[in-house]
Amino acid sequence: MTVTYSRCVADAGLGTFSRLLLRWKGSIYKLLYRELILFTVLYCFFSWLYRFVLNEQQKRQFENLSMYCDRYAELIPVSFVLGFYVTLVVSRWWGQFESVPWPDRLAALVGAHVRGVDESALLTRRTLMRYANLSGALIYRSVSTAVYKRFPTMEHLVQAGLMTQEELRHLEDLPSPHNKFWVPCMWFVNLALRARTEGRINNDVALTAILAELNSLRTKCMKLYGYDWISLPLVYTQVVTVAVYSFFLACLIGRQFLDPAQGYPGHDQDFYLPVFTLLQFFFYVGWLKVAEQLINPFGEDDDDFETNWLVDRNLQVSLLSVDEMYDSLPVVERDKYWN
Amino acid sequence: MTVTYSRCVADAGLGTFSRLLLRWKGSIYKLLYRELILFTVLYCFFSWLYRFVLNEQQKRQFENLSMYCDRYAELIPVSFVLGFYVTLVVSRWWGQFESVPWPDRLAALVGAHVRGVDESALLTRRTLMRYANLSGALIYRSVSTAVYKRFPTMEHLVQAGLMTQEELRHLEDLPSPHNKFWVPCMWFVNLALRARTEGRINNDVALTAILAELNSLRTKCMKLYGYDWISLPLVYTQVVTVAVYSFFLACLIGRQFLDPAQGYPGHDQDFYLPVFTLLQFFFYVGWLKVAEQLINPFGEDDDDFETNWLVDRNLQVSLLSVDEMYDSLPVVERDKYWN
Amino acid sequence: MTVTYSRCVADAGLGTFSRLLLRWKGSIYKLLYRELILFTVLYCFFSWLYRFVLNEQQKRQFENLSMYCDRYAELIPVSFVLGFYVTLVVSRWWGQFESVPWPDRLAALVGAHVRGVDESALLTRRTLMRYANLSGALIYRSVSTAVYKRFPTMEHLVQAGLMTQEELRHLEDLPSPHNKFWVPCMWFVNLALRARTEGRINNDVALTAILAELNSLRTKCMKLYGYDWISLPLVYTQVVTVAVYSFFLACLIGRQFLDPAQGYPGHDQDFYLPVFTLLQFFFYVGWLKVAEQLINPFGEDDDDFETNWLVDRNLQVSLLSVDEMYDSLPVVERDKYWN
Amino acid sequence: MTVTYSRCVADAGLGTFSRLLLRWKGSIYKLLYRELILFTVLYCFFSWLYRFVLNEQQKRQFENLSMYCDRYAELIPVSFVLGFYVTLVVSRWWGQFESVPWPDRLAALVGAHVRGVDESALLTRRTLMRYANLSGALIYRSVSTAVYKRFPTMEHLVQAGLMTQEELRHLEDLPSPHNKFWVPCMWFVNLALRARTEGRINNDVALTAILAELNSLRTKCMKLYGYDWISLPLVYTQVVTVAVYSFFLACLIGRQFLDPAQGYPGHDQDFYLPVFTLLQFFFYVGWLKVAEQLINPFGEDDDDFETNWLVDRNLQVSLLSVDEMYDSLPVVERDKYWN
Amino acid sequence: MTVTYSRCVADAGLGTFSRLLLRWKGSIYKLLYRELILFTVLYCFFSWLYRFVLNEQQKRQFENLSMYCDRYAELIPVSFVLGFYVTLVVSRWWGQFESVPWPDRLAALVGAHVRGVDESALLTRRTLMRYANLSGALIYRSVSTAVYKRFPTMEHLVQAGLMTQEELRHLEDLPSPHNKFWVPCMWFVNLALRARTEGRINNDVALTAILAELNSLRTKCMKLYGYDWISLPLVYTQVVTVAVYSFFLACLIGRQFLDPAQGYPGHDQDFYLPVFTLLQFFFYVGWLKVAEQLINPFGEDDDDFETNWLVDRNLQVSLLSVDEMYDSLPVVERDKYWN
Asked: What is the mean pLDDT of chain C?
């Protein structure tokens, strides 16, 4: 359910980005409103405490505490660490998108080089592409919660037409505790070799090209697996989270409006709600939310990659490419600029 | 209508960049003047309100509010978040330019390996290149508003000579809901295979090289598609926009010149127009405009990629390469440095 | 023992990252608690000294010193240098992960192109893959302390089944003082050539593809070796460390709560424990810990790459690929979408 | 006339970089002295105005204005935007250097695969390399002012021996409005194909390798063309320039030494020349100069790439490689370590 | 003499990096102690001047100057420009390491494809590898002062066994003023072609693979040459150096302890030695030293790449690979996991 807004911002006009502020789906408001409400409630609680519960002497102490918090909260370099951290998360996020395996290139080669219009040839082409898609689906199951929900067991993959019962049995019989996404790749290799032996693939250059393409698909699968396995170090995420959270804990007390009658510098007016602290909250926690949303783009956030759509699209396009489209060509005629 | 100014800045002299300040087309002034006028008008409105409408007590409250806004507006780290965000947008922008598919390399291979001077060979070469261009045009239609306006329906592509009626019918008959830019690629593959069978392409290495080149073109198309599909997360854009806008909303009040007679620190002179706030506006909103303009470089901004020009140039150059230029060679003679 | 937490952060909800704060394994608390205790103890020592040991005049001097430290500690741009340094370390860390050699691609090619079901062919395939794994293991021994502990001598590699006694003898007989991880690669080359001569590999394109794949594996090994050999310049690490440490040495004195009775600005309340300085410590030293942990990801930290697991997984998967999986294929049958 | 100083900084000793401060060619002084003089003169003009021309009341106003400028000039985040902008320019600059086409690799392949020692074979080899160089020269003419000055018309390319009259005529006859740098590439392709047909290139793998190499040369040419065509968005450059210039306009007034007798804070001493403002000018405008110089490295700045040298070097080396060096080999004898 | 410390930081424990602080070789202390002593001496000189030489009125002026310097020194954004500059230098430094040519991959291909056990075949293989190494050595001579000192004349290369007298004569006879590192590459090409003609290389795919590998080695050589030729623009280095130096010049005066009796704010205590200014010096100049050391990693700094070791290692490993290791293989026997 990726949120695409490229079209709205094609041309830079008066406040182009302002149009984006009114969206709800995938928006910062949707992600943030709970935290914002929580923060406001807590702020009001402390405000109520200070104004109505504490006695005079406790008020003085609270005021001291508040000014102390205000002064030292500035020491936490939230914007600095968020800038570097979010940049890192964004680059990993795009790296993950670029590792998404698309079988289109492979389909072109299989459609080109595995010749024949009999059923057996067709079966070979379709099965080859199904194996490539199956390998991707196995990886998605292990990295994407959305795909995992759709295919909670391997049986579901069979029902979805990505594999057959026979293949499932083979897969489960293989004695290995490790992720088996590479097994369909080996089936692909074996089937391609059989096609070469039977002459459906009629030269070694083509076979090598197909295997190279399969291998680059496999590399992408392994990259996805790597991104999932090697998260950003927990330590870094914790440091950033603690920085942001402790900053706003300090703000809960430090940004209270103190009694103007006491004449503390910078406290000569009581506005009840600290608009700018809320803005700051909106801003910093929003920035952190960017990281929370992008750190694993294979979930079910509004802005995550639509892996289930990918599974369907890739299967359909690859089967179309090697079946209906095989050797199909519109009449080749002179184009308009033929002189 | 890309704005190219490389030539003006070839040599660094006295104020090289100052020459660029006087341009209008693609300039910051053109992009920004509306926002700047709006901001100035709003500022003057508040100024007028403060000076002529409010009574004395309201003035004191306004002054308090103004100083509060001024102090806390500084808390919003606009420059920080803009720096990181714009850097990100710029790197995506260049990534998109590098994904633009140029069929030149493919034309060289088709011109080299698809042999024959009869009409059928010529037809094959021209059609192959037309397919490659058509694939690019289909992608452009889906990512570029400029190209979409030029070819609002597929029929327009036929009229422009990029495809034939027959091909359009084939394309529409294909039962798939997904973007069909890959279909001409499959036609290319099938036509290349036919050329191989007929012996026009006389060896398998050449065929594989051609298909590899086609696949790398296709990969570029998919990258463009990916950039369009997976926008920068909406959340990030919203956070940045809210930061910049709320900063200047606070400035509207916080940067008013307060009555010098009240003796507020830093308010001992009344200059009526806050030059530096306008400069800051110019500067920060200008920086945001860079992002607004680059986030989708396939629109019709002054500085967007000229995709329509690309469509024409690529079609012409590829047809020239495989038609007029086929086997055409000036007389090979001794060069000037011969022994 | 990599700490994987992708699954916990798949969806961004209310305080997604807050869930991560309660982990212990691989956490910042586990890494930092000793330093934090040390710092607190030292702080309390100075506090005790100031409050109970010093006489009045010494107290005044201490107060002067304290305020001096506080003012100038701010001059050390800790966050700046940490931001750049950690970004550098993180990019090297990921570069190292991307250089980890996975023999999967090679296994696919060996399984495809080295034909034959007799024992000799099987032996060739298994040995080829064993050589590739051995080469990786030799590199791991030299870059990873975890692997080194598992294989303290070459004899252990023999016992683990990665090499034979005969091979060890050959390896040790080779007169070269340099790291010999490349020797099994040359054996691989020689064995592949023998397989080509004997016709098990039946064409030159396949042989070249296999050798190219081996070479890219070898390149990854050399990259790991390079990362290990060329550390980040010691100077940079020292500068960063000195900056952080000296900042907190200054804080030990500069952040003491001074006697409120003396009326120093900003010292009107005594909270005994400087919560914000501890937070700052947690934060800056935690950031440094990220660097300490990532600078060599082949150690035994909670978050380091599991090289020993890699050695086992790679050996098993490559042997499976070329042995059990050789020419093994489930029955090819019509898939669900067969029209 | 690139300024190379690697050798001076090979070893880090006492003030290694200080040695570089005394250079004039390509130095910051040479680039900046005019701006610095201009700024100083303007500063002195305002200083003279304030001290000798204005009456007392005007002086007070000037002082107010000056302090206003001083306070608000700080609001412009010059260093921030310069840091990000210059980093961007530097990365494009290096990207441009990496896109410079070197025909060495192609020369090696042409020298290897186009066999024969008769004049016709030699002619083929030389002409092939001349075409590759011509293609580069055509691109340089369109991106580099230095090369354009050397070859203002195509006729000059003929005179320089890069093309023949006949080729010029062919080039001009081709009906296309677009840059024709790709035409010699097509001639190369056609000549290579002829060589293949005539048997001078005796296998298809070699031919494909040569064409692939040519295509990667061509890609580099197109990258240079792209860098030239798609400048950094004008908007960004203008924003940065306006930021720097307006900052120093504000400094002209804001950094004046005000009459110490008036007792303004921070104005208790009159040093006449604001050394630190000049340093700041030197520093910020110098940083901007880095961008001005690198934004188009194909001009005639001291530090620009020596494109004319490249044209000559590449032509000579490629002709040498395929002519004198063809099949030339010193006697192959036992090396020193032969045992 | 690269300083490798990966092993010491394999595990993050209590103050992992603190262990590195005690090293001398390649350390910041070794690089910096001269500058630090110089700075301290100068500081003491000014201190002595102020305390003992100046009369009362001059003291007052010095104090004014000092406070002026202190206030404005802050205006120089040293940390900002250093952060960006050092990041740039570090990325070039690693880019240079990645361009170091390792002939291992080429040796594998030569060992694989150049067949034969007679002396002539052996001679061919050894000579091919020697040429590849010679090409690297010629580049090192021109980029690395360490290698240049070892081989001040070409004659030294002959003595070191990298080339023969005959080859030197050929090299010197070639009429070209440009760097001739590419000449041995052409010899390689010619010798490889001869081996192909004589049938030692028995197929065209292998030949093409070998030439492709040679070309990628050559590309790395050219990259090293490019890094050496195109230094970071002198302007950038000068701007950074001037910023750092002028900052500390200002500190020499601005950070003097002024007479507490005068009651200047922030000058109520005299500590004689400005510990924090020295720390700042240590820190900023140390950061600059990182750049000084990395800007040319082919010198003789403690932390530079050991190019001489590389020359030796590469020659030995490549000769071993194609000579002793040619067709050498331990007995192929069943591995431990053979079912």
From this structure: 90
- C-alpha to C-alpha distance for B151 and C260, rounded to whole angstroms: 77
The total of other beta-carbon atoms located within 10 Å of residue A153's CB is 10
Of A178, A205, A246, the CB nearest to C279: A246
Q: Is any Cβ of chain A less than 8 angstroms from the Cβ of B166?
A: yes
Residues ≥6 apart with Cβ < 8 Å to D260: D267, D268, D269, D270
- Chain D contact set for E87 (CB, 8 A): 87
Q: CB atoms < 10 A from the CB of C57, how many?
A: 8
Q: Are the beta carbons of D210 and D192 closer than 8 angstroms?
A: yes
* A65–C269 C-beta distance less than 8 A: yes
E45 CB-near residues (< 8 Å, 6+ apart): none
Find the Cα–Cα–Cα–Cα dihedral B220, B225, B229, B230, rounded to 10°: 0
C81 contacts E335? CB cut-off 8 A: no
Angle at CA of residue A42, ends A38 and A43, nearest 5°: 115
Supply the ipTM of this predicted assembly.
0.93
| Residue B10 with chain D: CB contacts under 8 Å | 145, 296, 298-301
Query: What's the CA gap between A278 and E128, in Å, rounded?
Result: 71
How many Cβ atoms are within 10 Å of C55's Cβ, its own excluded? 7
* In chain A, alpha helices (H): 28-48, 56-73, 78-98, 104-113, 119-143, 145-150, 154-159, 165-173, 183-197, 204-229, 234-254, 275-294, 307-322
- pLDDT by residue (tens digit) across A70-79? 888 877 888 8
Phi and psi torsions of C298, nearest 5°: -110, 25
Q: Across the interface, which of C10, C209, C334 has its CB nearest the CB of A299?
A: C10
**Running DSSP on this structure, what letter comes out for residue B328?**
-
Give every CB contact of residue D281 below 8 A, 6+ residues apart in sequence.
Answer: D35, D36, D39, D248, D251
pLDDT single digits (tens) C306-329: 999 999 999 999 999 999 999 999
Give the position of tokens 């926008």: B231
Residues 6+ apart with CB under 8 A from B90: B290, B294, D88, D236
Which of E230, E284, E301 best probes binding to D when mutated, by most D CB atoms within 10 angstroms? Answer: E230
Residue position matching structure tokens 């050894």? E126
> pTM for this one?
0.94
Q: Contact A191/A124 with Cβ under 8 angstroms?
A: yes
Q: D152: which DSSP letter?
A: S
Residue partners of E222: CB distance under 8 A and separation at least 6: D102, D104
Where do we find the tokens 């690629």? B185
Question: How do the pLDDT tens digits run along chain E, 339 residues long?
Answer: 577 787 777 777 777 787 788 888 888 888 889 999 999 999 999 999 999 999 999 998 899 889 888 888 877 888 888 889 999 999 999 999 999 999 999 999 999 999 999 999 999 999 999 999 999 999 999 999 899 999 999 999 999 999 999 999 999 998 888 999 999 999 999 999 999 999 999 999 999 999 999 999 999 999 999 999 998 888 899 999 989 998 999 999 988 988 888 888 778 778 888 888 888 898 899 889 888 888 888 988 888 889 999 999 999 999 999 999 999 999 999 988 887
